[in-house]
Design goal:
With 272 residues, this protein is α/β, with parallel strands linked by helices. It is built from 10 helices and 8 strands. The protein has a single domain, classed as Aldolase class I (TIM Barrel), CATH 3.20.20.70.
Length: 272
C-alpha cells in the first residue's frame, strides 16, 4: 500500500483500475518518453486511457512510439490511436493494416470515427466488428470536426445507439481539443443542456465518454452524471486535477461529492 501525502485525512474513495466506468482519457499530442515517465510517476493511478492524438504518431520513430506504449501499458493504461488516423487508413483502404500495427505496437484499443470524412454508419459497424476480431477495445467517436457539418441531436442519438448496439466499448461525444462549437458545446465551450438531453435520450450515460478539455465542462458532466462519469481529451497535466474534481476535493465539486461521501465514510467508522 502506497502511503500518500496527508494520509491522516480521510479521502473519498473511487473505483480501482482497471476501470469500466469513471474513465479519464488523456490526449497525447506528441509527448516524449521522459515527460510521460515523469508524469506517470505522479498520476498513473488516475489515467485509464491514453489517446495518441490524431496522426501525431505517424511522424515519430516506431521504436520510440513502442517504448512509450509499453510504459503506459505497464501502468494499466489502455492506449489507442486517434480517430483521424483510422479515417486516413480507411481512405487508403488500409484499416486492416492499422489494426494489425496497433496490436504489434502494443496498443489494446482503437478509436473509430468519421469526424473529418464520410465513412458511413454501416461501414463504422463493420470496422467495430473487425477491430474486435483483433481483441481491441473499441472507442467509437460520434460527431463532426467542423460546426457547419455537425449532426442534429436526433442523428447523434441514433448513431450513438447504433454503435453501442454494434459492440463499441464506449461511444465518445465529440468536443475536439478546443471544446468549442461542436457536439453539445456552444461557441464559448458551454454545454447546451437541452441539446445534450436530446442527444442522450434513451442512452445510459455509462456507455458514453464525454470529451471535456475545459475544467468547466468537466465540472458540468461530473455534476450531471456523477463522479464515475467517463471524461476524455484531458490534457495529461490535468489528470490529477480531474481526479480531485471526481472526489470533491476541489471547490467546484466539494459540496456535490466530498462532504456527502466523506461524511458517509466517517459514519461507517463511527467518527460521526
Amino acid at each position: 500500500m502506497v502511503k500518500r501525502a496527508f494520509s491522516f485525512l480521510d479521502m473519498p474513495s473511487r473505483s480501482e483500475k482497471p476501470r469500466v466506468d469513471g474513465m479519464t482519457m488523456c490526449i497525447d499530442q506528441g509527448l516524449g518518453f521522459d515527460f510521460v515517465k515523469g508524469l506517470l510517476e505522479m498520476s498513473s493511478d488516475y489515467i485509464d486511457l491514453w489517446k495518441l492524438g490524431w496522426t501525431t504518431t505517424q511522424l515519430q520513430e516506431l521504436k520510440l512510439v513502442k517504448k512509450k506504449i509499453s510504459l503506459l501499458r505497464s501502468h494499466q493504461i489502455s492506449v489507442c490511436n486517434g480517430g483521424t488516423l483510422l479515417e486516413l487508413s480507411e481512405h487508403q483502404g488500409k484499416s486492416t493494416e492499422l489494426f494489425r500495427e496497433l496490436v504489434d505496437m502494443g496498443c489494446d484499443s482503437t478509436e473509430i470515427s468519421s469526424g473529418s470524412s464520410d465513412i458511413s454508419p454501416e461501414r463504422i459497424v463493420e470496422l467495430i466488428t473487425e477491430a474486435k476480431s483483433y481483441s481491441l477495445r473499441v472507442f467509437c467517436e460520434v460527431g463532426k470536426k467542423l460546426p457547419e457539418e455537425d449532426y442534429e441531436a436526433e442523428q447523434y442519438n441514433s448513431l450513438l445507439k447504433e454503435f453501442i448496439e454494434a459492440g463499441a466499448d464506449k461511444v465518445i461525444l465529440e468536443a475536439r481539443e478546443s471544446g468549442v462549437s461542436v457536439g453539445v458545446m456552444d461557441d464559448k465551450g458551454i454545454p447546451i443542456a437541452d441539446r445534450l438531453d436530446k442527444v442522450l435520450e434513451g442512452i445510459d450515460s455509462r456507455h458514453v465518454l464525454f470529451e471535456a478539455p475545459k475544467k468547466s465542462q468537466q465540472v458540468f458532466f461530473l455534476k450531471k452524471f456523477g463522479a464515475e462519469t467517463s471524461l476524455g481529451n484531458i490534457h495529461p497535466n490535468d489528470a490529477i486535477s480531474v481526479e480531485t474534481l471526481r472526489r470533491g476535493m476541489r471547490g467546484d465539486t466539494m459540496n456535490d461529492f466530498y462532504y456527502v461521501i466523506a461524511d458517509r465514510h466517517l459514519k461507517k467508522q463511527g467518527k460521526r
